[in-house]
Amino acid sequence: MKCDYNYQHIDIFYAGKCNRCGLPTEMWGKTKDGEKPMSNQDLLPFAKWSQERIAQNRKFATSRSKRYSDDPRVMWITVMPLEIVRDYLWQVEGADSPEEFEKVWRSIHRGHYNGEDEVFVHFGDFRGKT
After folding, report:
1. Which of 26, 61, 78, 110 is the most buried (most CB within 10 A)?
2. Chain-centre distance for alpha carbon 119
């Protein structure tokens, strides 16, 4: 079973339900018997810097170029320009300043930073399996 809107729109997913159709996200991609095996491919990967910030209980959001809706640690996903993340969400991303957020982004993306790029911002508790 899969939400009719899944991958056809960019929208907010909150508390395990699609904002458009209301279908519980735990039903997406399940087998006939309702089970979906968990794999590391479903989990958001984190660089060492992010792992440290998660362990320090400082990082509750992560911005990505693709959506990781199968990670059970993710509670909410939205899309916004990267500059909005840098200017307003740098603290929940675990950075000490907007400048540090941009520096970390550039280090991960080979120096590329364009504030107009749209990113998927994942909010959740990422402690545990990273």
Report:
1. 61
2. 9
pLDDT digits (tens, 9 = 90+) for 68-102: 888 889 999 999 999 999 999 999 999 999 999 99
Among 117, 109, 111, 89, residue whose Cα is nearest residue 101: 89
Which conformational region is residue 94 in: left (phi greater than 0), alpha (psi within -120 to 50 degrees), or beta?
Answer: left
Question: Residue 84: CB partners within 8 Å, gap ≥ 6?
Answer: none
The Cα–Cα gap between 122 and 13 comes to: 10
**Amino acid code (one letter) for 30:** K
Closest of 77, 97, 78, 98 to residue 86, by C-alpha: 98
